[in-house]
Design brief:
three-stranded antiparallel β-sheet
């Protein structure tokens, strides 16, 4: 019988007859079915060693319950591996290798047959990034700590040798003290010369 609409339930009754007589009517219940429409293009969200796959269910079930065959490919679609057969419209696939691109395809199927598979775009699971180390903000009011190494050395001018910082500080102190002594001697000599000039006068 042709012209039946998919998904519509029909009732028939059948009777046989012969020259002897007719049989009782036999009622038959039936419905017409067709393959479902294709599922929506899968949307894949990569995770750390995993991927979440979701898709839009078939617009038409063809008159019978639909299941979805979910497959993955790790070689750009050359070969496919079965992930699950489900009536849901999403799932999480794990474990996966981070850094390896993966494709998914979803095929809607009912008792009549299967729709064309819907294939996702490639996606790559990646390890989660670690948190950044927090740093205290530096403001004009907050002092910046400076570490000083007493054993540090500074290069001396005109030589390839290095002078310890502590020794350099001591040398500078001695030079300063010497300058003070010289200044005091100069003041004393000036005073003596002034007294001598006054006596001669």
């Amino acid at each position: 019988m042709t012209g039946l609409r998919p998904g519509v339930r029909y009732y028939f009754r059948i009777q046989s007859y012969t020259v002897v007589g007719d049989s009782p009517w036999v009622e038959v219940e039936a419905f017409s079915a067709a393959a479902p429409s294709a599922a929506g293009i899968p949307v894949v969200s990569p995770g750390d060693g995993s991927a979440t796959v979701s898709w839009t269910p078939s617009v038409s079930d063809g008159g019978s319950a639909v299941t979805y065959l979910v497959e993955r490919s790790l070689d750009s679609g050359l070969t496919w591996q079965v992930v699950a057969i489900t009536t849901a419209s999403s799932l999480t696939d794990a474990p996966l290798q981070n850094g390896v691109a993966v494709l998914y395809r979803v095929t809607a199927t009912n008792i009549v047959g299967s729709a064309s598979p819907s294939v996702s775009s490639p996606t790559t699971p990646r390890a989660a990034a670690g948190p950044d180390t927090p740093r205290a903000p530096v403001t004009p009011e907050s002092p910046v700590p400076v570490a000083w190494d007493s054993g540090a050395t500074l290069p001396s001018t005109g030589s390839n040798s290095a002078l310890p910082v502590g020794a350099l500080g001591g040398a500078l102190l001695l030079l300063g003290a010497g300058a003070v002594i010289l200044a005091r001697r100069r003041e004393t000599n000036d005073s003596i010369a002034t007294i001598a000039d006054a006596a001669e006068g």
